[in-house]
Amino acid sequence: YVANLAAFLTRSGTKSFVGSIEEAIDQNIEICAHPALREELEHKWPRARFVWSDNELNGLVDDYDNKDCEVLAVGRLDDVLDTPLMLDFCERSLVFTESILLETAVAFPIKPELAPGMSYWINQGERYEGVRKSY
């Protein structure tokens, strides 16, 4: 089972819209990212031109404003709960895309008698909440 760890942000409605990490790599575009993800992102995307911020997520916005990068790599689920950060994204006409940069596999050790119930809820999440299985 996987969770969306990092999504892609870019300016929508422009000629230079970038909808995926592959497009950013092909166009040689610099991508602002959090340094906590450096090892994983560099391993998964060795041809990408990442810019590593020094100042958490607000630093990514500052780097974007300073034109150090054209797109941001951020986690969607964490960021939508950060209202001031979301307002910063909206003020800059940044949108989330469906591009996934990283995924984290999650496994649940479970007693055999609880497995059927867990399988039911995982299937419900997959069917109605967008949870994806990965084997």
Q: How would you describe this protein?
A:
The chain is an alpha/beta fold. It has 6 helices and 6 strands. Strands 1, 2, 3, 4, 5 and 6 form a 6-stranded mixed sheet that branches. It is elongated, with a radius of gyration of 17 Å.
- The average pLDDT is 78
Q: Got a strand count?
A: 6
Low-confidence stretches: 1-7
Query: β content, as a range?
Result: 15-25%
- Cα(first) to Cα(last) distance is 7 Å
The radius of gyration over CA amounts to: 17 Å
Provide the descriptors you would attach to this structure in a database record.
alpha/beta; six-stranded mixed beta sheet; 135 residues
SSE topology:
Blueprint: E1 2-11, H1 21-26, E2 30-33, H2 38-44, E3 49-52, H3 56-65, E4 71-74, H4 76-79, H5 83-91, E5 94-96, E6 102-105, H6 115-128
Parallel strand pairs: 2-3, 2-4
Antiparallel strand pairs: 1-4, 1-5, 1-6
Offer a quick outline of the entry:
Helices cover 37% and strands 21% of the residues. The protein is α/β, with parallel strands linked by helices and 135 residues long.
